[in-house]
TrEMBL record:
Gene responsible for this protein: pfkA_2
Name of the protein in question: Pyrophosphate--fructose 6-phosphate 1-phosphotransferase
Role noted for this protein: Catalyzes the phosphorylation of D-fructose 6-phosphate, the first committing step of glycolysis. Uses inorganic phosphate (PPi) as phosphoryl donor instead of ATP like common ATP-dependent phosphofructokinases (ATP-PFKs), which renders the reaction reversible, and can thus function both in glycolysis and gluconeogenesis. Consistently, PPi-PFK can replace the enzymes of both the forward (ATP-PFK) and reverse (fructose-bisphosphatase (FBPase)) reactions.
SUPFAM superfamilies cross-referenced by the UniProt entry: Phosphofructokinase
GO molecular function: 6-phosphofructokinase activity; diphosphate-fructose-6-phosphate 1-phosphotransferase activity; metal ion binding
GO biological process: fructose 6-phosphate metabolic process
Binding site for diphosphate: G13
Subcellular location: Cytoplasm
Activity regulation information from UniProt: Non-allosteric.
Source organism: Alienimonas californiensis
Taxonomy of the source species: Bacteria, Pseudomonadati, Planctomycetota, Planctomycetia, Planctomycetales
Oligomeric and partner information: Homodimer.
Site (Important for catalytic activity and substrate specificity) residue list: D113
Length: 437
């Protein structure tokens, strides 16, 4: 059978290592006779709908190699456009693009919503007589793809690097807090994580022996404003200071963020960094209003997108595994393995080793991982050693080798070489039509 082409695309928030998964797909596909040209959907599925397909096979090999240390999604773009069941015109358009460009493989890199899209698109293509393998590449800094038993996937590329960021960040925060505590004894830090606590939990990696006055509050464990103020005050009495890490989606009874202040993305998810007020600022204001048992005030730090795109904080383990996840997706494609996401499974818990496998897209799309309740301390202010055993190998040791030229980071510079457009121009359906009521 003649080689058919592959489209790879990205969806959702980027990570420090997402491009290394793309690199794994491209470099592996170049070695496989079954796969012809590799295209990238520019800005995810939106690029596919608009027939904006970047030719990755035509790129210089050295630029593809540089994707390994190029963070975020500037190289091929991402999107937050979801194909919902009512968008029949969009589904039809994707299939037209596949047919026009001899696409036999579609790899979507992202989280649960992306896996659902990959599954729907490829299944529909097959129903319409197109032999398309739909595959997924795992990506999410939240580590919420998969199941809570870690049987579908142990962890997702992107999480290890964000966890390492928070490990490094809290160590530096502790130095700041120790020095400025006579005036600013409490420092409240907000971490990404709408509903799941793997990112704020990673703060404990900075202090595995629990020597810092560190309090960690995960979104999974609700707390009242009275409780959290009392716990901060008690820590200040004992240590003279406190470092507090909160999930951006933490629900504090008695200190709720009004719905009108919350901004939501096209998936309906809150984007707290875009909202008019943050839980960290609200908590800081309330703590200062109620007062502390020591001199001084509370301050807050709200980390932005740097926690998901800092290549200098990237984990070398995460970089290696993200590449292998992309490699596995390309191998699954060439083998005709339709309907799977490439996965990372831990094979030895004591001496960290993994294998690269596959999980059905349908199971991944319909699953939701939670932070294990027994990994949260009884008082809700810490995580257990079991979490540390799980997360410590993921942040690795040492720093990634990032090329610097003339004092500036050398990122990949992909040529905007697009496939010839063969279809009429198209505006994605959700951009011009409201969903049915």
């Amino acid at each position: 059978m003649p080689a058919r082409n592959l489209i790879v695309a990205q969806s959702g928030g980027p990570s420090a290592v997402i491009n290394n998964t793309v690199r794994g797909v491209v470099e592996t596909a170049r070695l496989l006779d079954e796969i012809g040209t590799v295209y990238a959907g520019h800005h995810g599925i939106e690029g596919v709908l608009k027939e904006e397909l970047i030719d990755l096979t035509a790129q210089a090999p050295e630029e593809i190699a540089l994707l390994g240390t190029t963070p975020a999604a500037g190289a091929i773009g991402t999107c937050r456009y979801k194909l919902k069941d009512w968008q029949n015109e969009d589904f039809d358009r994707v299939l037209e693009v596949f047919k026009a460009h001899n696409v036999g493989y579609f790899v979507y890199i992202g989280g649960n919503d992306s896996m659902d899209t990959a599954n729907k698109v490829a299944n529909l293509a097959r129903e319409r007589g197109l032999d398309v393998c739909g595959l997924g590449g795992p990506k999410t800094i939240d580590n919420d793809v998969g199941d809570s038993e870690f049987k579908l996937i142990d962890h997702t590329p992107g999480y290890g690097s964000t966890a390492r960021y928070w490990s490094n960040y809290i160590q530096q925060v502790n130095e700041e807090n120790m020095g400025s505590s006579p005036a600013d004894p409490v420092l409240i830090c907000q971490a990404m994580g709408r509903k799941i606590g793997y990112i704020p939990a990673a703060a404990r990696l900075a202090d595995p022996h629990r020597e810092m006055p560190l309090l960690i509050y995960l979104a999974e464990r609700k707390v009242t404003i009275d409780q959290i103020h009392e716990q901060i005050a008690a820590t200040c009495k004992e240590h003279g200071r406190a470092i507090v890490v909160v999930s951006e989606g933490l629900s504090i009874e008695g200190l709720e963020i009004p719905e009108e202040f919350i901004v939501r993305d096209s998936f309906g998810h809150p984007t707290f960094s875009s909202s008019k007020i943050t839980v960290a600022q609200m908590l800081t204001n309330e703590v200062n209003k109620r007062g502390l048992p020591v001199k001084g005030n509370a301050r807050c730090n709200v980390s932005g997108t740097d926690q998901r795109h800092s290549i200098f904080h990237a984990s070398v383990v995460d970089l290696a595994e993200s590449y292998r996840a992309g490699e596995k997706a390309a191998l699954l494609a060439a083998a005709g393995e339709h309907g799977y996401m490439s996965t990372i499974l831990r094979t030895d818990r004591e001496n960290y080793t993994v294998k690269y496998d596959k999980a059905p897209l349908k199971e991944v799309a319909n699953s939701e991982r939670h932070f294990p309740a027994d990994w949260i301390s009884e008082d809700g202010t810490d995580v257990t050693d079991e979490f540390l055993k799980y997360a410590r190998p993921l942040i690795g040791d040492g720093n990634p080798s990032v090329p610097i030229i003339d004092g500036r980071i050398r990122f990949a510079k992909l040529a905007r070489t697009y496939a010839d457009q063969k279809l009429d121009a198209y505006v994605p359906q959700a951009d011009r039509q409201s969903p049915p009521s």
